[in-house]
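Input record, target 12 of the design panel.
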């Protein structure tokens, strides 16, 4: 069951019809991103993902990575696929021409990343981590560092990682222990152990560039005393070729629930030569460039697993015969009806469809803000994009991975007992998706970031930036009879969203635990509200296309049916989240730790 079809038609809908990317590219001066070029990229990317990556997804899971004497071998076909990926120029697409890139918009790289992730998430993590390393070097590296490392990463002959957490500290990076001792030549000797390093060791590229957090000898305690370093697996020669082996080794590979095709490494740094990126003791600030890239990449993972599960369960539901429809036989010539006739199977399929397509809209909305942040003409425009992206990023990362995991489970459920059997690939999709709500900041961490830092600490400014967009949409469509059900509900949500925020903020002034108690429900509420706006926008586009007359009537009617399903069946979940967050912290905190017993 390796067959995956990249949903090009729906991607084009979100890109062009919903978010107006053609005009967006023209306005930002991306002359090379013409409609013809974009179409060619989409078509070629889809071919590579369907024909090269998808066929090695299940075999990669079954074979996994192997470790021997510090060296890692990736599953059969992974290295060869990466060589094809590099030869085709895919790694360089969204990077500046000055460092060997093609100068195309970041958002086109996002589309390619979704394709890759849907076809084979484990494989996609190898080049995916490199983009974060590239963005970090581009933003904070010196000209010499860019020339030495960034050019190689952009061309794809080297890959990158980020090395944050350690065995004792998890998310709490303020207590990390890795050390950086100054060398006489201006470099640093890096010592310590990093765990959970995705793509940390492999045989797919000639060098691996680790971006590492460590402490200088005189560093202050906590997060204010963390610096950032480049630590290559092999030290580069003066001519840019690979030189001697550095003091970093892979101690082992983690034995994981899923993503077996990706090497999640324990890395030991033993006086490894490293080079400071950015100012001393400002490493965490610099690393957030990497982490924000990774968080949007993980948001894509939720979309990818929802899409993969939906495609396979839809095909199965149309083919699998079981029982008769409650409203009478739909396949009278057969022994039973296909299970897609049953309402509960429709519920599971439509939920996956709504989250896959709605998630795609949200990720591409975020990608559009990255383009604007990079290339808009005025500082005001760039700041507006940055602010909107800051608000949407924790929602995208946490909400889309939670709903992606839900969708993967529903996809398996559609198969019944067969979903539990490995040959169908559905249990792999569930296992692979489970990590997405954990790494790059758990759902709880993202929720604290959203409610605490992005909303309350800005006195609601970042929230209002988005709710104003929703308000303007609703005002513009008040007289649109076809959109009345959506607009009415959106207006109610927009008002309630602000009221809930104010109520939590007032409570938090008396008891800070109120923020933590409300945060996850607040984030999920926010996710449903953001997707409601996007589905209403999608319904507007679909209605307009049908009114104009179109040869793709089935596509637009499907879009309208999914929008209606989302508003009728999914959006009511906000009521539960609103009630839960308003119930306060006492029902969570009143039981003392010593009274937690079993």
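The sequence produced for target 12 reads:
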């Amino acid at each position: 069951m390796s067959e995956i079809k990249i949903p090009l038609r729906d991607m084009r809908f979100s890109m062009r019809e919903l978010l107006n990317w053609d005009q967006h590219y023209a306005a930002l001066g991306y002359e090379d991103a013409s409609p013809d070029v974009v179409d060619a990229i989409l078509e070629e990317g889809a071919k590579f993902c369907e024909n090269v990556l998808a066929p090695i997804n299940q075999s990669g899971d079954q074979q996994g990575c192997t470790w021997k004497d510090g060296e890692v071998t990736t599953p059969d076909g992974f290295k060869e696929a990466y060589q094809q990926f590099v030869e085709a120029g895919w790694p360089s697409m969204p990077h500046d021409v000055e460092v060997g890139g093609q100068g195309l918009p970041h958002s086109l790289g996002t589309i390619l990343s979704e394709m890759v992730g849907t076809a084979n998430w484990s494989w996609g993590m190898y080049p995916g981590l490199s983009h974060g390393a590239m963005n970090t070097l581009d933003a904070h590296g010196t000209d010499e560092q860019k020339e030495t490392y960034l050019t190689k990463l952009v061309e794809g002959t080297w890959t990158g990682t980020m090395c944050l957490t350690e065995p004792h500290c998890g998310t709490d990076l303020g207590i990390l222990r890795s050390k950086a001792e100054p060398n006489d030549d201006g470099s640093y000797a890096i010592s310590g152990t990093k765990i959970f390093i995705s793509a940390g060791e492999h045989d797919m590229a000639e060098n691996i560039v680790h971006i590492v957090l460590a402490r200088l000898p005189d560093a202050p305690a906590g997060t204010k005393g963390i610096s950032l370093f480049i630590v290559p697996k092999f030290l580069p020669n003066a001519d840019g070729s690979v030189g001697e082996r550095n003091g970093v080794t892979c101690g082992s590979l983690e034995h994981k629930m899923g993503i077996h095709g990706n090497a999640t490494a324990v890395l030991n740094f033993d006086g490894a030569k490293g080079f400071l990126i950015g100012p001393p003791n400002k490493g965490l600030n610099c690393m957030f460039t990497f982490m924000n890239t990774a968080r949007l990449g993980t948001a894509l993972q939720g979309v990818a697993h929802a899409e993969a599960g939906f495609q396979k369960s839809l095909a199965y539901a149309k083919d699998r015969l079981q029982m008769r429809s409650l409203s009478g036989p739909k396949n009278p010539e057969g022994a039973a009806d296909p299970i897609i006739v049953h309402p509960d199977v429709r519920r599971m399929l439509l939920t996956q469809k709504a989250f896959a397509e709605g998630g795609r809209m949200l990720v591409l909305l975020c990608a559009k803000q990255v383009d604007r942040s990079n290339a808009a003409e005025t500082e005001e425009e760039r700041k507006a994009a940055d602010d909107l992206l800051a608000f949407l990023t924790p929602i995208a990362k946490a909400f889309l991975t939670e709903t992606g995991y839900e969708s993967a489970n529903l996809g398996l459920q559609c198969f019944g007992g067969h979903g539990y059997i490995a040959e169908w690939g559905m249990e792999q999709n569930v296992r692979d998706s489970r990590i997405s709500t954990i790494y790059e900041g758990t759902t709880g961490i993202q929720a604290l970031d959203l409610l605490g830092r992005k909303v309350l600490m800005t006195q609601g400014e970042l929230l209002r930036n988005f709710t104003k967009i929703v308000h303007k949409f609703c005002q513009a469509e008040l007289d649109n009879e076809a959109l009345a059900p959506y607009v009415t509900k959106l207006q109610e949500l927009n008002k309630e969203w602000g009221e809930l925020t104010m109520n939590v903020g007032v409570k938090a002034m008396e008891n800070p635990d109120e923020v933590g108690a409300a945060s996850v429900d607040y984030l999920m509420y926010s996710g449903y509200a953001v997707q409601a706006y996007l589905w209403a926008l999608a319904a507007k586009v679909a209605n307009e296309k049908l009114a104009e007359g179109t040869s793709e009537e089935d596509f637009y009617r499907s879009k309208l049916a999914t929008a209606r399903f989302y508003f009728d069946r999914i959006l009511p979940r906000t009521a539960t989240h609103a009630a839960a967050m308003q119930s306060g912290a006492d029902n969570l905190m009143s039981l003392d730790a010593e009274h937690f017993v079993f």
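The chain has a mean pLDDT of 95.
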